[in-house]
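This part of the workshop introduces the protein records we will be handling. A record pairs a protein's sequence with a compact description of its fold. Backbone structure tokens are a discrete shorthand for how the chain folds in space. The question running through the whole workshop is how a given chain folds. The record below serves as our worked example for the rest of this section.
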Amino acid sequence: MGLEIREVRDQRGLRSFVNFPFTLYRAHPCWVPPLINDELNSLRWDKNPAFEYCRARYWLAFKDGKIVGRIAGIINQRHIDRWEEKYMRFAWVDFIDDTEVARGLFGAVEDWAREEDLHAVHGPLGFSGMDHAGMLVEGFDELATNATIYNFPYYPEHLSALGYLKEKDWVEFEVYMPEEDDERIHQLSATLQKRYGLMLLETNSKAELLPYARELFDLYNQEYRKLFGSIELTEKQIDAYIKQYFGLISPQFLPVVLDADGKMVAFGVTMPSLSRALQKARGRLLPFGVFHLMHALRKNDRVDFYLIAIKEEWQGRGVNAILFSRMLKVFREFGVQVAESNPELEDNFAVQAQWERFEKRQHKRRRSFIKYL
């Protein structure tokens, strides 16, 4: 039996779509499994608010009756309008090392793009900037994070053979916490707070942090909309992300800087690494996955950076030193030794400059590919 590409048309097919990577990467030491329910909620039109402005189709590849690949195609109308690019996105792509399979999967997405009179296919890019993006092209022997995609080295080779070119790269750093506390950054933080009338938000519970959640996402929308491929989140998306993530985030790991009027100037979202815990959970919170995650949140020597944003009018005035002063104190208290930067656009030198005072290594690179039709 030859290759067969089938579109996913029901919940059973969607579950097979989500479960395929668990077979492909079974026991791989660098792959970090997602939570199955989170994946299903992202892909279901009746669950993900992004379907207010997106359309998506999903395909599975079969050989000899066995699933050997998957891919999603996404038409993000807000991206098309915002960036004036008639592009289709591909995402959730995984496949065995087989040229015919790769050609069949990407062919399905490209055919749909042509039907819709679109000019290119690019990705991996999800529904929004909060989804995973970028195919790994360097760092295949490095542990993935909850915020990133892992893929085998043959993936980018197949894309190149299919005519896909580099569109944009992200780099990632492993950053080592200093053995001795750096008093200079704490002194700078105190000076800046006094000079500009700024203050750190003091919260002791998630309940106290929650009222600032929407303002945080408003600032995210303002600043991240300028970055490659980003679009502003809708109110319904913000509500969904608050519900999904704020229960996990500890206020200690989310410093917020306020101005004299109590308005948010900057924030940094970090979290103890969930990579090993998610590997143990194997995609499920129950019966034991939740305990692995809770243990990782309480005791961990690694931390992941997720989001950092500074209001435009405050950029270039050292406000990030206030965030880092608080984060370093918390990291030292919790025994954190290593931080993962997670993806940063390779030409976003302002963000990469944050790591200049630290010992670090650039250990991963990922890429958005594009093919013009």
